[in-house]
Amino acid sequence: MMNYTELFYPPRFAVGPGSIQAITDFTKEANLTCALIVTDAFLASAPVMAAVTDVLKKAGIPYYVFDRVISNPDAATVDRAAALYTEKKCDHFIAVGGGSPIDVAKGASLVAANGGAIQHYIGVNRTVHQGVPVIAVNTTAGTGSEVTRAFVLTNRENHTKAVSLDHHCLVAFAVSDPQLMLDLPGEVTAATGMDALSHAVEAYCAVNHNPFTDGLSLQSAGLVNGALLTTLHEPYHLDSRTDMCWAAALAGYAFSNSGLGLIHSIGFQLENICPVPHGQAVGLFMPYVMDFHRQAIPERIADLGVACGFTDKSIAAKQVVAHFYEMITAAKIPTLREVGFRADDIPALAAMAMEDPTLATNPVQPAVEEVEEIITRAYCNDLQ
């Protein structure tokens, strides 16, 4: 009987101030000659794009730009990026942005290497060949997409999201340079920070957790706890921005190898009902799901508390749940009522969450009535 754990993460990752310059060495060593930059319309004309293209010019790498990525991208966007890559005879992608551009580039890399359309590869390990090289230049600290084997696409016809896992889409080189994030709006910093924290929490609680992911999750949670509010109060605090880069990457490594859970099951589906950014969606439900999990896995919730500085493990679980709620409030994450969610939608959201694939690795399989109660508590801001 085989009983082993296989780990997946990018072969190279550069993090810290000035790390964007490492692209020059990587492209030279990998003999890359022509890039397709994948980004959105806003970033295409932002200073961060000039920082990337300056590095490419220094390296003598010609490039083309695909700037049609939108929030919550769909399969058609991926296929258009892959088609332009082929048309321009590029040999690598450079994703510039947060989760959406990086996910599009990862998906397009699979299409470029395996042919067909991305629809054929939505699922788990549906490809045969490694995707063409992707360099991920992260401009937010939260999604972890730069280090995961996951990509998320939205079906605009039925308003659902599909989370796919494929180790062939792991990027070849990931870059998280905090200097590119200094001018991020506060609401983006807060939402992506909550995304990173939710990844750390769920990876630590997931049924597939292991010693590797446990250490990453706890370290990530501690870093977010120490750095997020400082970053929000002092946006140009480079050390805190750097800590958030580390936190996002560590949590990404963790959940990519252990799985997610109920926080994301509900959060993903909320996004199909209300136009709310992903980080806000998961942040809204995180303390309530953690409070629910205190009954089933109290030791692991307590461990997260200890990682955040609550040294009395006998009460750390309760303390960290309350603390994360206070962090969410301090970060000005909108409430369910404020994002336009209605109480009448609670049963539908609970039913949708029960069908979300991320629930498979949750530490317990809840009844739909329990999920309804969690959502109701979040709606009422009831964390008593």
DSSP strand (E) fraction?
5-15%
pLDDT below 50 for ≥5 consecutive residues: which ranges?
none
Order of helices and strands: EHEHHEHEHEEEEHHHHHHHHH
* Cα Rg: 20 Å
Q: How many H/I helical runs?
A: 14
What structural category arises from helix and sheet content?
A: alpha/beta
The helix fraction, in percent, is 40-55%
Instruction: Give the CA-based shape.
Output: globular
* Biggest sheet statistics: 6 strands, parallel
- The count of β-strands is 8
How far is the N terminus from the C terminus? 46 Å
Write down the overall mean pLDDT: 95
**Neighbour order of strands in the largest sheet:** 1-8-5-4-2-3
Secondary-structure map:
Blueprint: E1 13-15, H1 22-29, E2 35-40, H2 41-44, H3 47-59, E3 63-69, H4 75-87, E4 92-97, H5 99-114, E5 134-138, E6 150-155, E7 160-165, E8 173-176, H6 186-205, H7 211-233, H8 238-258, H9 262-273, H10 278-293, H11 298-307, H12 313-330, H13 346-354, H14 368-380
Parallel strand pairs: 1-8, 2-3, 2-4, 4-5, 5-8
Antiparallel strand pairs: 6-7
Helix pairs in contact: 1-3, 4-5, 6-7, 6-8, 6-10, 7-8, 9-10, 9-13, 10-12, 10-14, 11-12, 13-14
